[in-house]
Design a protein that fits this description.
The structure holds two protein chains of two kinds. In chain A, about 35% of the residues lie in helices and about 25% in strands. By secondary structure, chain A is α/β, with parallel strands linked by helices. Chain B contains twelve helices and six strands. At the A-B interface, helix 2, helix 3 and helix 6 of A face helix 8 and helix 9 of B.
Amino acid sequence: MVKTSTAIQINNLSFAYGAKQVLHDVSLEIPARQVTAFIGPSGCGKSTLLRCFNRINDRIPGAKLTAGSILVHDIDINRTDIDLQELRRRIGMVFQKYNPFAKSIYDNVAFSLRAAGRTKRSVLDGIVENALKNAALWDEVKSRLHASAFGLSGGQQQRLCIARAIANQPEILLMDEPCAALDPLATLKIEELLSELKKQYTIIIVTHNLAQATRCSDNTAFMYLGKVIEYGSTMQLFENPKEPQTEAYVTGKFG
Amino acid sequence: MFNPENLIRKGLPKGHFKDLVVRFVLAGLTYVVVLIAALLFAKIIMDGAPVLFKAKAPFVDFEFLTAKNETLHVFDDAQGNRHQLPASRYNDYLAKYEGAPIFNEQTYSYSGGGIAGPIVGTALLTIGSMVLALFFGVAAAIYLSEYAKQSPFIHAIRLAILNLAGIPSIVFGLFGFSVFVLAVPVITPTPSDRSLLTIPLHINHYVMSFQGWNSSLMAGCATLACMILPVIITASEESLRAVPQGFRDASLAMGATRWQTIRKCVLPFSLPGILTSSLLAITRVAGETAPIMFTAAVAAKDDLPWQGLKSPFDILSSQVQALPYHIYTLAARIPSSEYTRRAQYGSVFVFLLLVASLSVGSMILRAKLRSKLKW
């Protein structure tokens, strides 16, 4: 595993939705400026773990941390005095189903900035252009920035959601199966984008697509039934897994 | 043994006659309902349209819509010509032909002039109650769908609101009478004798007196608002819930606060649904008689609501005429004759047109919003 500074440290985390325990004693160290992939069969808790990092699970009734802690750059994000809005501005998120707002392309990207109180048009123009360029969407939409976001193709909409998420210059980018609803070509574009984005951002990606994990991630965690079974560099985990369950999963014997 | 020949049926399909019978019975019942509605509309249109529309330009009898309501005088002059004149013109006639004999004079209350008063009154009641009901209703719906935890207490509240929708309107009328007309507090230097309780405020002899707002526009608006609140709350909550969760997730994940999320990403998309429910509410508010007969409506009023007021705010504490109550008065309180038909059918026809145009207008608005905000 490549050693760099740690972006997120998870210590003995347990998490439950009401009476249903979803994560059991999870401990991980996620390095900064790399791509970390979470893989595992459906229902293994990888999305839940991802959604703990920006505390978006908070709004689900009954969801609560039952043990352990999550440190983002050494700050415990479950402290009561955390500024949730600032936390979520520092940790962007892209969802499985692309979900642009029914607004113009420009307004979608500018949304988080406006929510943060930055409304000066000249400032917004520059940031929106930059975000769209970083999301490799600028050339396709620059002539119709004020058209509805729904006029874009699925792949373009997902890249718009990525642009929206990086408009605030976050430290960390969470991606919850960002290509699940996309065709192979659009997926390829997003993957190319990931290798660019990891120069600036720490990226954590949840994926069902094992090939995608091998293609774009530096580290991979294999999760099963709410536990992290194995965590290491992607190459080691796929080519030389230590645990028999990991081997069974990455070779396609179950999952 | 599978015999492919059996796939071809002999004779009619199974249950053919039963299907036919069921089909005809259901179709028959449907068309009976349609027929009744059609007859109703045909009757109103045939009797009412001639009052409002004329064969000559400008084709619409604007006087009926813009003139005040008056008593109709019917009489014969010495030449045997029959005259039908509203009270004001009757007086002009008497002044003009002073001393000329008049025969067979009869008077019909409320049957002369136009129905400007009731139209304006209904418009004011509708606007006032919709403003109140939307304000309270949408606020409650946002709380229930976005903020409240799903506890048994909240479920009980929701159930109570649903039940409120089933209460007969006359009960709301009596509730409004006992609360808004007789009991709500007002701040005044001169409390009335029947005040339930007075609390001195020690500012220039002003007291808070629980004496109600009397029968007035604002008491009527408040009563009507109470009546449609359950409809607005329930429907608004449903349309708020119909907004995809993904919008809320995305907005929160970008560091928006809860209120920013609701205002920018949830409310705009639930607007068409909220409008639909308010459209139903508008037609109900405009059409109800029972809630306003004790709280706001008056059968006869010489001035339009804004005439003869000391300050513009007095309009809130003045009584108004209203179309449904006017129709009730014309139908039940005066002896019917050939001279009252114009006012009776005309009022009903105008009322029908008003409600229909409100419905159509809201539908167009809703369709426009939908096409702009679809996801």
